[in-house]
Design brief:
With about 800 residues, the protein is mainly beta. The protein is about 10% helix and about 45% strand.
């Protein structure tokens, strides 16, 4: 409680000080200047790379920092066929990967990205320097990022962004929970004038070559329309409005189903169908000579539709196999569609100004994500022919309030000393809303006829069962933190930084982290840098309280199976205990070389994580009489839950080389080669719980290998961007190392490897500063796919390619982009 009182006291006193000094303090630069006017600003990809992430010293560039930071312009994000932010980001940032899972329920629509091969929830995402909120979705199926609740990067459209800063370094001491792998800071566009609109249209023209089938696919169209407008008012006020509409048809790379005659494609395996609307507003103005007001807000409505595995009436199937389909009136089979409707809010308002020589920033933000789940074109076998075809499965909701106060001041100590300190208070909420009865349960007694007596029918919508009233929950927690961040320019050559942070959570208690950084410039062209830090990630509310169960009535008694909170009576009986935060130790050392238009950075890192949280395998009553006795009082046949205890060590190297060549006759050439080598090794796996020794397998071989080999060990991107007056061209080749999607066989014979592949992208463009914008391009020019799924993992014919593929499995994509700037 001391931390809470300190935080609120500092915030209250700061508001008072701002009011008191509003007329007398020295003037500070306004929130926006002429640099935000497109007419006075060079293109986004040639601006000086001044950063605000990883340092609180004003004016520091990415090449002058003690930590590695990538600066990715909005222009580079939009010079691609995709309009998805996460996909575009992964194409140009080697340390970021964005697999496109399929047949994994809600994860198909809310797909998580990874940094340095770590869990998606171990990367902190900021919007304009303010903590973003996670999705309400918890990834519980077999995908990269299983067990995580991560920020959905695709809720922010690229048209709303000026640039992105990626801090590739542990930063919990600076920013708090989640920043174990690093930080992604989304910087919104600021403009007082100008605007633009564009339409991007694309389609696939690809040859699909699965294990049992070869075919050509032409179509699967996608269209995105976007626009932005800058509005100025007063001496420096601005409002920048951005909007985007996307409609994308689903892709299908399923193999043929050999269970049916004639053999044919019965499934749908690929990207989901998507229709979404997104809007963002970013604004700022000076209120007085020393006080500025800023705010941003964003809203997205996304409707995604992916497919579950088909329910088929296979040729020669037994009567027992056909019976559920016949009873449901669907003897010919059906393909369930999983429909997620996501509504997402991002918002913040703040004041910044000068108080007694201190730069003060006071902000309040609110974020919320609600996902409504529906299962379409399906059936609940327990209802027989009375079954609905469409089901309301319920909803998950996550919201977050953050109040923050940041204070900085530069002192004339040594050469200079930048002192930053602040407090932050946060309230998080999580809620599960139950679905309709037919989505999860049995019909009321006597309401359904035609089901023979003593027939056991698994209840719930086929494909995705709904949340029952027993799964419904509403939980919240609070936390407060204080930090101190010092950065001293000791001499012309030596930079030293020190940061510390203390956090107090209402659920698990307190934690503290620290960071030290050092940089020495041996010469203007050569420097060494390094950091050492500790970090943490608080267990998410989703991990602590997510519940989803299914029941089967046996001898008149409902028997449950599913996911339970670790503190529920069921999990406690099996040894579940309250979750504790994950903790990390991060070390990095690197070099910076620059000369003229050339710069080259290399950074090696080691990240050790302990007390890592994972979702256990199902613990079945059939494992032993002991387990059966523990589960019997709760009428549960199998249960899984989250627990701490995993440990891992990640080692790697990031390298980025960039050269800009200016030629009067031939134009400007930007050459970039960037690579990441990454190795994750799980060093500890729990084998017992507090009540089970021995315990069943808590983490299967496939789960461990997903952590170790689920992202590429090597990724290298090389690009050439040429421009001459209004013409331009881009060529990019991205090499991906092998990824292992492990199967269930201990021998490894069912593992599926994506193989080593290179993806080539090309784009030609015409761009007038004010006028027409035209782009023509091809993504994946040579129609490269990951290695095919083997028969041992493809008995249904659905899984044509491994969903762990870091570049997806859709093939060649052709697109055109037409727009107008004014």
């Amino acid at each position: 409680m001391t931390v809470y009182r300190t935080a609120f006291a500092l915030i209250a006193s700061t508001v008072a000080l701002i009011a008191a000094h509003a007329a007398s303090a020295q003037a500070v630069p306004p929130a926006t200047t002429e640099a935000n006017d497109p007419a006075a600003t060079p293109p986004a990809d040639v601006q000086d790379d001044i950063i605000v992430t990883g340092t609180r010293t004003a004016g520091r560039s990415r090449l002058d920092s003690a930590s590695p930071v990538d600066v990715l312009s909005g222009a580079s994000l939009q010079r691609q066929g995709t309009t998805e932010l996460a996909t575009a980001l992964s194409a140009i940032a080697p340390s970021i990967d964005f697999p496109r899972p399929s047949a994994t329920d809600g994860t198909d629509a809310i797909r998580p990205a990874t940094l340095r091969g770590l869990s998606p929830d171990q990367t902190l995402v900021l919007i304009n320097g303010i903590r973003g909120h996670t999705s309400s979705l918890l990834n519980t199926n077999g995908s990269v990022g299983r067990g995580s609740a991560a920020v959905d990067l695709n809720t922010v459209p690229t048209v709303a962004l000026d640039r992105i800063e990626v801090l590739r370094d542990g930063a919990s001491a600076q920013y708090g929970s989640d920043a174990i792998a690093g930080v992604v800071n989304l910087r919104l566009r600021e403009a007082r004038s100008g605007g633009g609109a564009q339409v991007t249209y694309g389609f696939y023209d690809t040859d699909v070559d699965t294990a049992n089938n070869s075919r050509n696919v032409k179509g699967e169209h996608a269209v995105t329309a976007s626009a932005w407008q800058g509005i100025g008012f007063g001496s420096d006020g601005f409002v920048t409005v951005s909007g985007e509409y996307t409609k994308r048809q689903p892709t299908n790379r399923a193999d043929i189903d050999t269970r049916v005659t004639p053999n044919r494609v019965t499934g749908r395996y690929g990207d989901p169908a998507v229709e979404q609307y997104t809007g963002f507003v970013n604004a700022g103005t000076s209120l007085t000579d020393n006080l500025s007001l800023y705010a941003f807000g964003g809203y997205q409505d996304r409707d995604s539709r992916s497919a579950a595995f088909p329910r088929i009436a296979a040729t020669g199937a037994s009567a027992a196999t056909l019976a559920p389909l016949v009873r449901a009136g669907l003897a010919g089979g059906f393909l369930p569609i999983i429909n997620t409707k996501s509504k997402d809010i991002n918002s913040a308002v703040g004041l910044r100004g000068d108080v007694g020589g201190f730069n003060v920033d006071l902000s309040l933000s609110y974020g919320r994500n609600r996902i409504d789940y529906r299962t379409l074109n399906s059936a609940n076998y327990a209802f027989g022919t009375a079954s609905p075809r469409n089901f309301d499965d319920g909803a998950t909701i996550y919201d977050q309030y953050v109040a923050g106060l940041d204070v900085t001041r530069k002192f004339d100590v040594l050469q200079s000393l930048n002192v930053a300190f602040g407090v932050e208070g946060r309230r998080e909420g999580y809620k599960i809303v139950a679905g309709e009865l037919a989505s999860y349960g049995y019909p009321a007694a006597g309401t359904v006829t035609g089901i023979p007596a003593n027939t056991t029918a698994a209840p719930g919508a086929q494909g995705f069962g709904g949340f029952s009233p027993g799964n419904a929950t509403e939980r919240s927690r609070r936390n407060a933190s204080v930090y101190l961040d010092l950065e001293a320019q000791v001499t012309d050559k030596l930079l030293f930084g020190l940061a510390g942070r203390a956090e107090d959570y209402s659920d698990f208690g307190t934690t503290a982290t620290g960071k030290a950084s050092l940089r020495y410039d041996f010469a203007p062209w050569f420097a060494l840098r390094g950091t050492a830090s500790t970090g943490f990630r608080a267990p998410s509310l989703q991990q602590q309280y997510f519940t989803q169960t299914a029941s089967v009535v046996t001898n008149g008694v409902p028997i449950l199976t599913g996911t339970f909170p670790s503190v529920s009576p069921v999990a406690t009986a099996l040894g579940g205990i309250p979750l504790e935060p994950e903790k990390s130790t991060n070390l990095s050392v690197g070099t910076v070389i620059r000369a003229g238009g050339f710069d080259f950075t290399v950074d090696a890192y080691r990240i050790h994580i302990r007390d890592q949280i994972g979702l256990s395998e199902n613990i079945n009553a059939s494992f032993s009489p002991t387990v059966a006795a523990l589960l019997a009082p709760y009428n549960v046949s199998a249960a899984r839950f989250f627990l701490n205890g995993l440990a891992s060590t990640t080692k790697g190297i990031d390298a980025v080389a960039h050269y800009r060549l200016l030629s009067e006759g031939a134009g400007t050439f930007d050459f970039t080669v960037a690579g990441n080598i990454n190795d994750v090794n799980v060093t500890r796996v729990p084998v017992t719980t507090s009540t089970l020794n021995p315990a069943p397998t808590l983490f299967a071989r496939s789960r461990i290998l997903t952590l170790e080999d689920g992202t590429p060990g090597e990724k290298v991107t090389g690009s050439i961007d040429w421009s001459l007056d209004r013409l331009g061209a881009l060529a990019r080749v991205t090499y991906y190392g092998d990824v292992n999607q492990p199967g269930t066989l201990v021998s490894g014979s069912a593992d599926v490897h994506t193989g080593k592949h290179a993806i080539t992208d090309l784009e030609l463009r015409y761009s007038a500063p004010k006028g027409a914008q035209i782009g023509l391009g091809v993504s994946n020019v040579f129609d490269v796919y990951p290695d095919r799924t083997i028969a041992a993992n493809n008995t249904t014919g659905v899984l044509g390619y491994p969903s762990y593929s870091p570049f997806g499995f859709n093939g060649r994509y052709l697109y055109a982009r037409v727009g107008l700037n004014w």
